[in-house]
């Protein structure tokens, strides 16, 4: 490594948003000695419990532990120079929160960590989830507030398959970046399995996007000029 910059920084709302579409990409960069980072905005306390928890607080604690185990498998928590930050904005209600603190959280992370690439959700949130959409808006606003010469490359999660919901299709962005993560498939599946409370999300993702287990796809926003 020639400097202290991150190569890739993910900014996402929930524990587990890092793993389905980017775990292999994270592993590849870490294997190349390129530090990566993750900013998670909520603790995931409003998600599914599958009967494993009896309160939002116990779910939040479990999901934090699941995320830690996932990042251990990915290798992010033990790679020198990599970083993980977990914020406590309210899960499921990001759209109802004051917008400026969300933007400032994203901007502060970008300016301090100086990533070459920032990855977040696309304008439609991939599935329309309000937290995904709000996170997109906050990260995009933070990115646009930077001087052009200081902006990192901006990537969104992307799928070759248009959304099933008609309302989400106008903002669908097909991928223009593809990463073969087959060499990391075993560890990626292990990392996904760390999120036990989100097993239904795992089943849904594999059913709808089986190809994205071995090939991770993104949309890179064109830079002006």
Give an overview in words:
This protein has 225 residues and is α/β, with parallel strands linked by helices. The protein has a single domain (8-220), classed as Rossmann fold (3-Layer(aba) Sandwich). 36% of the residues lie in helices and 17% in strands. It is built from seven helices and seven strands, in the order E-H-E-H-E-H-E-H-E-E-H-H-H-E. The chain has a seven-stranded mixed beta sheet, with helices on both faces. Helix 2 (56-74) runs antiparallel to helix 5 (185-193) and helix 3 packs across helix 4. The chain is globular and about 50 Å long. The model has no long low-confidence stretch (mean pLDDT 96).
In short:
The chain is α/β, with parallel strands linked by helices and 225 residues long. Helix content is 36%, strand content 17%.
Number of helices: 7
The percent range for strand residues is: 15-25%
CATH class: Alpha Beta
Principal-axis shape: globular
The tally of structural domains comes to 1
Largest beta sheet: what is the strand line-up?
Answer: 3-2-1-4-5-7-6
According to CATH, what is the topology? Rossmann fold
**Residue share in helix:** 25-40%
* Main sheet characteristics: 7 strands, mixed
CATH-defined superfamily = LmbE-like
């Amino acid at each position: 490594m020639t400097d202290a910059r991150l190569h890739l920084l993910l900014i996402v709302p929930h524990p587990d948003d890092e793993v389905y579409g980017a775990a292999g990409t994270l592993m590849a960069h870490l294997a190349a000695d390129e530090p990566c980072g993750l900013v998670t905005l909520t603790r995931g306390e409003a998600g599914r419990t599958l009967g494993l928890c009896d309160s939002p607080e116990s779910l939040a604690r479990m999901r934090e532990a699941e995320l830690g185990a996932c990042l251990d498998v990915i290798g992010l928590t033990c790679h020198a120079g990599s970083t993980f930050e977990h914020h406590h904005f309210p899960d499921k209600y990001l759209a109802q929160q004051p917008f400026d603190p969300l933007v400032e959280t994203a901007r502060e992370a970008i300016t301090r960590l100086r990533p070459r690439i920032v990855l977040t959700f696309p304008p439609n949130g991939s599935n329309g989830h309000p937290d995904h959409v709000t996170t997109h808006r906050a990260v995009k606003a933070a990115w646009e507030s930077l001087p052009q010469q200081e902006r990192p490359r901006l990537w969104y999660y992307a799928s070759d398959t248009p959304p099933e919901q008609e309302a989400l299709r106008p903002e669908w962005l097909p991928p223009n970046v593809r990463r073969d993560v087959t060499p990391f498939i075993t560890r990626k599946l292990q990392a996904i399995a760390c999120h036990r409370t989100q097993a239904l999300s795992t089943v849904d993702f594999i059913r709808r996007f089986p190809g994205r287990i071995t090939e991770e796809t993104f949309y890179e926003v064109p830079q002006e000029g």
